[in-house]
Amino acid sequence: MTTQSPYVLRTQGVTKYFYDPEKFQVLKNINLTVNRGEFLSLVGKSGCGKSTLMYVLSTMDTDYEGELEIAGERLTGKKQNELAQFRNNHIGFVFQFHYLLPEFTVLQNVMIPALKLGKYSNSEIEHRAIEKLTLLGMQEFAHKRTNKLSGGQQQRVAIARALINDPDIIMGDEPTGNLDSYNSNIVFDIFRELTSAYKQTIIAVTHDDEFAKKTDRVVVMSDGKITTN
Amino acid sequence: MRMNLNSYKLSFSIALVHLVSKPKQTIIAMLGVTFGIGMFIALVSLMTGLNDFTEEITMTSSPDIHIYHDITEKRSSILEQLNPQGLNWVHHQKPKNETLRLRNASQLIDLIRKDDRMIGVAPTLSSQVFYNYGSVQLNGLILGVEILEEDKLFDLQSKMKEGRLEDLLSYHEGIIMGSGIAKKLNIKKGDRVVITTPQGFTKTLKVVGIFQIGIGTVDNVRSYANISMVQTILQQDQAYITDINIKVKDRHQAKEIAKELQAKFIYKSEDWETANATMLTGSNVRNIITYAVSFTLLVVAGFGIYNILNMTIYNKMKDIAILKAMGFAGKDVRTIFMIQSLAIGLVGGLIGLLVGFILSYMIAQVPFDGGDIINLEHFPVNFKSKYYVIGIIFGVTTTAIAGYMPSRKAARIDPIEILRGQ
Known about the structure:
The complex is a heterodimer of chains A (about 230) and B (about 425). Chain A has helices spanning about 50-55, 80-90, 105-115, 120-135, 150-165, 180-200, 210-215; strands spanning about 5-20, 25-35, 40-45, 65-70, 75, 90-95, 170-175, 200-205, 215-220, 225-229. Chain A is α/β, with parallel strands linked by helices. The radius of gyration of chain A is 17 Å and the shape is globular. Chain B has helices spanning about 1-20, 25-60, 80, 105-115, 145-155, 165-170, 180-185, 215-220, 225-235, 255-265, 270-275, 275-315, 315-325, 330-365, 385-410, 415-420; strands spanning about 65-70, 120-135, 135-145, 160-165, 175-180, 190-195, 200-210, 220-225, 245-250, 270. In chain B, α2 packs antiparallel against α15.
């Protein structure tokens, strides 16, 4: 948000090994630049390393070689606590499963990352959460428990939660992997609208070719390398 | 700073929701702590009540320091004195025929009184006597005392059932008798009693008061008279004193002071702790039992909390993972679970204090028949706030320790392993 550079994420020579059961190079010299407002999908066969790459990009995985930069900030070598703070502020997540907290209402779930960030007052956060829910057509369920919702609705709440702190990037790990085609389309349309109307950057790992085809840019991976960019 | 506070508030509300959403589990964990603390309070109240009671008894029956001439003290034989380097063996040496008299007693007393660590110094002499009741003779003990000095040591004024201490001063041939012996002799204030010493000296004394200390072994035999009176019946001179009793300002210094006095005056000088070693051993054993049992109960409660928290964390793996993905640091996650265990400890502990108070209140109502030996109607129970503070600190510390390990484990959960799932 603060940087004027066109790219929001950049990696240089990211390489990663798995050591269990034996040493295996899972990522090989990945150089990737993602521009602001880009809707990017990361595809490839099972085991090609696309998920592993995404978790490196997400800053949760710090065990790699090379450089990672997001929103103008070099993240390689930072401490876990600083990275947690960074994720809270700059990255939103949507996973295959919704991972909503079952004891809380829809509204509370959406508010939690913002409460953690503590940038706004509680009433402002609530207002913003309602806004995000409205954007996703979920405002009427705000005070329901999350386990009362359908799978598609839960995923939409998860997207609202990912948006609450106006992140620089939304990262999705198979965001439609657990949804039927109807709900998949809804989620895709939401992503599409976010990128075109709000200049939201989205990186999604998927093995759904339909989904990938409709995105702005498809990055194909094979054997730990980017083959088509 | 605001961010920090917010983050604690958030951790707190998440912890609270976790506790409330599993009420059964929470209540069971709390009950463990409640039971532990409750039993601790009840036990400690009763045990310290008993300890205080025995201590009070020892205080009323023995002085802080008692100086006397111990004629049974082992002495070196003449052979050893003559031939100190040799290998001597004297078989079954008997005590010399010595008098119990403390030499220069009045000078000793003056010296001791100058020491500002002392509150009261009471010279005493005692004699076995027979109280004559018609044709029956009852065995007893008469103490010759300066009654007001004796009062400073043993608070006799509050133990008087009839008459006043001062009456003994104004009436030279008076006697203050123990309630037990007075009852046996069927004697009231104003009656006369005939006493006989083992040496055969007989005297008639007027009863000016009756006291009750509450210990049968004292009340059933002892009576007080003026020093000069007892010197007369023992047919001794005015300087004849056999014992000096001392009250010191700090009872716990008695041992040191007693040693000092013994070194200075040669005479045997015994402190209250040594004189009542058996009773005090009882107190120590009771203390050990109390703390051992309470500690065990709390450790069991701690294991309960450890288990329940481990289970909660296992069930909440996904929640923890997503919280960490969304920006909760390890310490935030740890805080969430530490708050849960501390809340269980604090609430369970406070209820435990209440339960403990009710239990000890009930114990205090239980009648206890001390018989002739001690004068006690109910179990003695302590209600000192000190033990309630110890109890809650004890409880919260246990839960904090029990909660720390699972909380640390939760903080170390790697979100990737769970979120990748597939």
